[in-house]
Design goal:
This protein has 248 residues and is of the alpha/beta class. The protein contains 10 helices and 8 strands. It has an 8-stranded parallel β-sheet with strand order 1-2-3-4-5-6-7-8. The longest helix has 14 residues.
């Protein structure tokens, strides 16, 4: 690990109350599993660290399993970043199992991994057992329409998630319709991010209908999709209407 990461790790191992964050960086391109294991063991005992960042560690599924085991025992962590960690469906399943029992994490970012539809399914299903996670970020994971379907099913019943980020997942208009229909039945989601997903005017129309019904939504991010600015402008206008804010 980099020198700064080692210094932070030492303080975490000492359960230093002035060390609320740890950023784990590898010296090379990949963080070895022994280093991941050492950090996770320290976090199991930590009662002060609230943010852990393993971005670019390339830990893979084996590393994700170690992190998942840590989450089952940690009682302080609130935000966890696992961006570009080469995590696949197997690692996602381990993390999902951990989220069923973890009661402190409010945000997890799994962007730019390779979860696919199978990973989306286990994450979506675990939310039925989790009431503390507020932000789920699963961008650029090859979810496709099938992945969008799993998250749409989750949104219909979920009452805790405030933010769902699914940009760059090639969900298209079909995925947009699935999510928009689910949003109509959800009353807690505040932000939905689906930019650069191949959504056209057809897909945007579904969101236009949804924001007229759902008054809790404040943001629907449709940037960098092949749609007319007019329909996107209508969605933004509805979402920023002062009368809507007063009704929330």
């Amino acid at each position: 690990m980099e020198t700064r990461s080692l210094e932070q790790l030492k303080k975490v191992e000492e359960n230093d109350p002035e060390t609320p964050n740890i950023v784990v960086r590898a010296v090379g391109k990949k963080l070895d599993l022994d280093s991941v294991r050492i950090v996770c063991e320290a976090l199991k005992r930590s009662t002060y660290v609230v943010n852990a960042n393993f971005t670019d560690s390339q830990m893979g599924n084996e590393g994700a399993i170690l992190v998942a085991d840590m989450l089952k025992q940690n009682t302080s962590l609130e935000k966890l970043y696992l961006i570009r960690c080469n995590i696949g469906p197997h690692g996602a399943r381990a993390l999902a199992d951990a989220l069923r029992v973890n009661a402190t994490l409010t945000e997890i970012c799994l962007s730019h991994n390779r979860l696919g539809p199978e990973g989306a399914q286990v994450l979506a299903e675990c939310m039925a057992f989790n009431s503390t996670l507020q932000s789920l970020i699963v961008a650029a994971n090859g979810l496709g329409v099938e992945g969008a379907r799993y998250f749409a099913t989750m949104l219909r019943d979920n009452a805790s998630l405030h933010e769902l980020t699914l940009y760059m997942n090639d969900i298209g208009d079909v995925g947009a319709q699935l999510l928009a229909d689910a949003v109509k039945q959800n009353c807690t989601l505040v932000k939905l991010s689906v930019w650069r997903n191949g959504i056209t005017n057809k897909g945007a129309t579904f969101f236009l209908d949804a924001v007229k019904i759902n008054l809790s939504l404040c943001t629907v991010d449709l940037d960098l999709n092949p749609l007319d600015s007019d329909i996107y402008g209508q969605i933004k206008k509805i979402l920023t209407d002062p009368a809507r804010a007063a009704a929330q």
